[in-house]
Design goal:
Blueprint (H helix, E strand, L loop, with lengths): L2 H28 L8 H28 L3 H7 L7 H31 L16 H30 L5 H15 L3 H21 L3 H23 L5 H12 L1 H61 L11 H14 L5 H7 L8 H26 L1
Amino acid sequence: MSVKSKVSTVSLVCYFLIVVLFAIVRMLTAFGVFDGLGKNFDYALNVVSQVVILFCLSIFLFSAMQKNKVKDTFKYFGYKKISFKAVLICIGIGIIVYFLNIFIATFFNSILALFGYSSSSSVTYLSSYPFWLFLINILVTAVLPGVCEETVHRGLLLKGLSGFGERKALVISSLLFGFMHMNIDQFFYATLIGFLLGYLALISDSIFPAMIVHFINNALSVFASYSSFNSLGFEKIIGGFNAALELNFFLGFLLVVVFMASLSFLLFILIKQLFRETTVKNMAKLEQTIIKQMEKENYIKQLETVASEGENQTQPTTISFEEFDKLYKLHNQKMGLMSNLEQNMLSSPNVKMTTFQKILSIGILIIVASVTIFTFIWGIL
């Protein structure tokens, strides 16, 4: 079995186990098994589900099955540092994604409503919404999903299934990201966001942009609820579009289209900037480092030639492909641009799904799709 095929198998096995455990928790919650345990238990269960099931199983189970060092697994999953400027770009992308997501979610929810669907999630009416509760919700709803869900889908899946080709890995990880929410309300827009997050991870060769955008999107959603409850004014931004639609549908619709088109264009510009600030800069640094090393090697060889054969043999020497490849891999690792596992996968060709991998994939899809469809039926009934 090739390196890429083995990594893909290990990734699917890990994800299958994660899906089974996550689905069990989701269904027990839906049937009200934990209702009598209080709100604090809900928070604790959410934390355990995110940290233990999603994060720990992804990192430690993958490392154990792959016989990989945990540190190298983190790097393989894309835990590679980015510049402060790249962080600011990602924050901007996250803000844009949040506003685009509102309109996308509204559109898909309108389609679901045509089938008689209404959200089956229980709404908790609070007598007050203090700041400390806002911070807890930020932790549970934005920080943990931003780290844990991205580790699973942009780390374990996107990188783990890259042996099938990056495009296939991107589509599969995005679709499963949507299904993994196990809620028909979130499936459509989560899949689209998952595709964008996966694309950001690929062009930057780092999982941190996806984490930051995911966090910002969820954090703004939490803040919108907090603002609405305490009348801070943030909710009026979206309310303005709704008011315009009610006042004049065509004018309001035109306003929404122009707003979304402008945001989409700005999103495109920021993504290009992120690519330049991450991959392009890293490759430029790597190229300069290798060139300097090659010049040093050539200079040493020329000195040796002069010492042994005389001053007439001073023409520049060349470096073999094997020597260049060795320098490339060496400095890639030194600069933190590539993990040991990625190095081993470089020379391995892309693979096709084996029968066992297809069975795992079908099993995963059946589980997550069944729970998602269940939430749709539950919403209709």
